[in-house]
Amino acid sequence: MDTLPEYPFKRDARCPFDPSPQVNELRHERPVAKVKLWDGNEVWLFTRMDDVRAMLGDDRFSADSHHPNYPTWSAAVKQQKTTNASFLRKDKPVHTAERRLWQAFFTPANIAALRPAIQAIVDGAIDDMIAAGSPVDICRTLAPAVPAAVISKLLAVPEKDLDFVKAVGVTRTGIGEKPEAVHKALVDLHDYWIKRIDERLQNPGDDLISKLIIAEVKTGRVAREELAAMANLVLLAGFGTTADMIASGILILLRNPESLQQIKADPLTTPAVIDEMLRYTSIVQHGLARVALQDVEIGGVTVRAGEGVVAHLASANRDEAMYVEPDHFDTQRESRFHVAFGSGSHVCIGAPLARAELQIVFDTVFRRLPDLRLAVPFDAVKYRLDHTFFSVSELMVEW
Q1: What is the pLDDT of residues 309-345, one digit of tens each?
Q2: What angle separates helix 224-255 from helix 351-368, to the nearest 10 degrees?
Q3: Cα–Cα dist 180/358, whole Å
Q4: Is the pLDDT assigned to residue 99 strictly greater than 80?
């Protein structure tokens, strides 16, 4: 019997935006394959778009991270998935009920109403970047500043607390972190929210948390602890991944001057460019995990009840059956059916907000700084590959 490949695979540092060569090989030769994880757990890896969508859209696969065979990439990731689990790690009907509490805040109308505030935040962050002087590191300035300020406004997190939140986010996503450090960081953030919720029970504001306290906690429908877990998810997800995409997106645009010129000439094309950017980058490095609740036939194999499965989003977004020349960044293609935000009932709830932030950032920064360019050779750009989410870790630019 062949030895199972050990997962997750490493990206090729020479092609940082591409999935690993091993996952590409599996997509071509064994699109549904068994792999072995750090803890000896043998799971199925799905690498093609049709199978990824089918699995993520099938309620016979559970998102409950407390299942003993739930796939994780390290002891730290296992700790992250099981500490203060939010609705992201729950199944219907609990997942549906808790997700619905937040869904109304991310409607197109609400996002449209937020756009002036986001624009002001972006302009302020660019003002600060200009004041700091060229060159600057996008990963220390614009990229984190915008989503931090936006999510801070939505959840009424004081600016003085943002360094704490950022530190928790970095620890939480580190694959090689010590499990006890991940546990402590997430417990500390949970305790932080319990205190904030108690304060707002007495003096509610106009933020999302206060609205949920009035509608759900005070009526007894949601416990403080449950709301704290939800707030953790929205806060961390709303900050880190958007910051990663801002940095990666600016780099991609600087590397693709025709696409950059396209959005400069016609900002109405920016949403389509962002979709291709999301498809091409797919920052969820190693995929989304589930556990089969019963025997399920998918992709030509039978997944047995209790077996773990992984949907490799980045591989699905490079599936040749879905896209022509998928390893090429092409803003003329139809990209909006990618799975960068996941798929099925657990698709990212904050996707509309992230899209709005990305659009405003890209349109504004290149309008105000039309000569923005890399301050170092492309080969000198640094990346963060040891976390759950792929990102640029240092991006020096000048103008």
Answers
A1: 999 999 999 999 999 999 999 999 999 899 999 999 9
A2: 40
A3: 34
A4: yes
Question: Which bin fits 367, alpha (ψ -120 to 50), beta or left (φ > 0)?
Answer: alpha
Domain with 181 in it: 21-398
User: Which candidate, 289, 284, 323, 320, places its Cα nearest to that of 303?
Assistant: 289
Residues 167-185 as b/e (b if ≥16 CB within 10 A, e otherwise) read ebbebbbbbebebeebbeb
* Structural contact between residues 304 and 298, judged by C-beta atoms closer than 8 angstroms: no
Residue 264 sits in a domain whose CATH number is: 1.10.630.10
Does residue 1 register a pLDDT over 60? no
Spatial contact of 376 and 251, defined as CB atoms under 8 Å apart: no
Residue 356 DSSP class: H
Q: What percent of the chain has pLDDT over 90?
A: 81
Pairing mode, if any, of strands 308-311 and 42-46? parallel
Is residue 109 one of the residues assigned to a domain?
A: yes
- Give the integer Cα–Cα distance in Å for 214 and 205: 10
Sign of the CA dihedral with 31 first, then 32, 33, and 39 last:
positive
Tokens standing for residue 216: 């759900």
Nearest to 385 by CA among 4, 1, 14: 14
Confidence bin at 240 (pLDDT 50/70/90): confident
In a domain, 13, yes or no: no
Tokens representing 313 are 């989003």
Q: Say how many domains are in the chain.
A: 1
Q: What is the spatial distance between Cα 242 and Cα 244, in angstroms, rounded to a whole number?
A: 5
Give the three-class secondary structure for 323: coil
Collect contacts of 171-174 with beta carbons under 8 A, ≥24 apart.
172/80, 172/236, 173/80, 173/240, 173/387, 173/388, 173/389, 174/76, 174/386, 174/387
Tell me if 15 is assigned to some domain: no
Does 198 map to a domain?
A: yes
